[in-house]
Specification:
about 130 residues, VC0802-like, 3 helices, 7-stranded mixed sheet, alpha+beta, globular
Length: about 130
């Protein structure tokens, strides 16, 4: 694992996490979303993370009010323990997270009400100057 402080940055907006049936058709509102969004299908669910303004009012929402931060820049696959370095201190402070990994980076969503606490906790293990 790297010994340098990981640079973190907020992603703009507030996010919503929607859970649909595993065989549900991916809705157009999810496919047409702008900014950061994630669509993941498993054998037990279809999970969609998208900006709150992308979801129609009639959609049953699992949870709203999330904010997102990501590790700025690309992470080399040879680095291990990056996500746990961020998640462990948040878990100790009982700050709920929803994690998304991409080819280049990791994204953490936390509840908007926990933004200040998230920044304080992560300042011990990451560069939060852009948060």
């Amino acid at each position: 694992m790297t010994t340098e402080l990981l640079p973190l940055e907020w992603l703009p907006g507030k996010y919503i996490i929607v859970q649909l049936a595993p065989d549900a058709v991916i809705p157009d509102w999810a496919l047409n979303a702008t900014g950061m969004f994630s669509i993941t299908r498993t054998t037990s669910e279809l999970s969609i993370v998208v900006g709150e303004d992308s979801v129609p009012e009639d959609v049953e929402v699992s949870d709203s009010g999330w904010v997102a931060l990501r590790i700025a820049g690309a992470i080399d696959f040879s680095q291990s323990g990056i996500l746990s370095k961020l998640i462990e201190p948040l878990a100790k402070e009982e700050i709920s997270i929803f994690a998304i990994s991409t080819y280049e980076t990791d994204i953490l969503l936390t509840k908007g009400a926990s933004t200040i606490a998230t920044r304080q906790v992560l300042s011990q293990v990451a560069d939060v100057s852009n948060l």
